[in-house]
Amino acid sequence: MPWFTDPLSLEFVQRALLGGVLVAVLCAVAGTWVIVRGMAFLGEALAHGMLPGVALATVLGLPVLLGAAVSAVVMSFGIGVLQRRARLSYDTSIGMLFVGMLALGVIVISHAGSFATDATAILFGDILAVGTGDLVVLVVATAVGVASAAFFHRSLVALAIDERVARVLRLRPRVAQTVLVGLVTLAVVASYQAVGSLLVVGLLVAPAVAARQWTERVPTTMALAAVIGSAAVCAGLLVSWHAATAAGATIAATAIAAAGVSWVLRAGIDTVRRRLVAPDLVPA
Fold first, then answer.
1. Spatial contact of 123 and 198, defined as CB atoms under 8 Å apart
2. What share of the chain is helix, strand, coil (3-state, %, to 5)?
3. Is residue 185 within 8 Å of residue 72, measured between CB atoms?
4. Which residues contact 282 (CB under 8 A, 6 or more apart)?
5. Local confidence band at 143 (pLDDT 50, 70, 90 cut-offs)
6. How far from chain centre, in Å, is Cα 141?
């Protein structure tokens, strides 16, 4: 099968595939909790909140990953401050900072000259440019994310069920919430190189949504989401190679398509089961 083996025989495509799989595993861990807690808006806001840090780092000639990390951490901290000090709701705090950080990023980009190519990479990523150093960062980020999720699993489960129960059981719900926001931040920043700030939420949420159709347990959902995300990375790279499309966008679109296919299959199976069990109760 030359259409499959030829692209994957190239070293830069192999690095892209390995980097994408690492991102898929990290996003599966964080994305499962995003789905369970209904925090997709936080992931979207953090993805766009990285823009000013990335833009400034590019203008100043600093590592863009450092700028993305600093910007995302500032936004996460700002959300907590607005909640505690200004007594704003979680969604309101996220919304205000989301718009503010995005506006600041656009101002930096518009002020800098000859920024078109860099802006494209910022928004849509460049997974085919993943280097050995990027892979090392992704390995460390994935290891930290998986270890944190495993260590704080009980606290995160209790927080998802009821914050008051978590407090009574002394499972430190505030610490669990901080860890969860940290996981999402880590996944968003690590995924930036692969799919960019605009498309990162697709890889963060879509595989977990697809996996959630088939399992309710959190660890199983994470594992299945990692498999689906990795498959989306491989399929997206192959499609982008043969169709001459943007790799990051193709990967994100493939992941979202997987979520749609999973939902259709689950709905079809449920309909067939209802027809077999109670045919009179299923509308024609």
1. yes
2. 85, 0, 15
3. yes
4. 271, 274, 275
5. very high
6. 13
Report the pLDDT value the prediction gives residue 207, as an integer from 0 to 100: 95
Contact 154, 171 (CB under 8 A): yes
Q: How many of the other CB atoms lie within 10 Å of CB of 87?
A: 9
Tens of pLDDT, residue by residue over 246-258, are 888 899 899 999 9
Return the DSSP state at 246: -
Q: Is the pLDDT of residue 90 over 90?
A: no
Which SS3 state, helix, strand or coil, does residue 262 take? helix
Closest of 64, 169, 186 to residue 126, by C-alpha: 64
Q: What is the C-alpha separation between 205 and 33, in angstroms, rounded?
A: 10
The token pair at 95 is 């919304």
Dihedrals phi, psi of 231, to nearest 5 degrees: -65, -40
Q: How many residues does the chain have?
A: 284
Q: Give φ, ψ of 63 to 5 degrees.
A: -60, 125
